[in-house]
Amino acid sequence: QVQLVESGGGLVQAGGSLRLSCAASGRTPSDDNMGWFRQAPGKEREFVSAIKWNGGSTLYADSVKGRFTISRDNAKNTVYLQMPNLKPEDTAVYYCVAGGWGLITTNYGYWGQGTQVTVSS
């Protein structure tokens, strides 16, 4: 199947930036939609962003629209999430997902292990 490994998380101050990466291995994901969810302590997992396999369409949660940018490089089997101007409320574990489409958790069949993003004020 598909294995997803996130990287790029860390600790930053408010206003800083991070770029998350998700490397896919196993079955080629070049024709799979991919995206990101996040989960803050004590809260349910929520949708962040998604991108079609060909990069032609993207989705963003209202909380990140206009700030975050999702992209992919199929030659490297990698999806990115550029996160400038980070806010404390962005603090969460970020999960890479593959397969499916939309804002609902159960639409996606593959999940990474998550990477921690912490934004301090």
Keywords:
121 residues; mainly beta; seven-stranded mixed beta sheet; four-stranded antiparallel beta sheet
Give the helices and strands, then pairings.
Elements: E1 2-7, E2 10-13, E3 18-26, E4 34-39, E5 46-51, E6 58-60, E7 69-73, E8 78-83, E9 92-98, E10 110-111, E11 115-120
Parallel strand pairs: 2-11
Antiparallel strand pairs: 1-3, 3-8, 4-5, 4-9, 5-6, 7-8, 9-10, 9-11
What does this protein structure show overall?
- Helix content is 0%, strand content 50%.
- The chain has strands at 2-7, 10-13, 18-26, 34-39, 46-51, 58-60, 69-73, 78-83, 92-98, 110-111, 115-120.
- Strands 2, 4, 5, 6, 9, 10 and 11 form a seven-stranded mixed beta sheet that branches. A four-stranded antiparallel beta sheet has the order 1-3-8-7, with no helix packed on it.
- The protein is globular and about 40 Å long.
Q: Which structural category fits the helices and strands?
A: mainly beta
Please give the radius of gyration in angstroms: 13 Å
> How much β-strand is present in the residues?
over 45%
Largest sheet: 7 strands, mixed
Helicity level: under 10%
Tell me the distance between the termini: 40 Å
Would you summarize the structure shown here?
The protein is mainly β. The chain contains no helices and eleven strands.
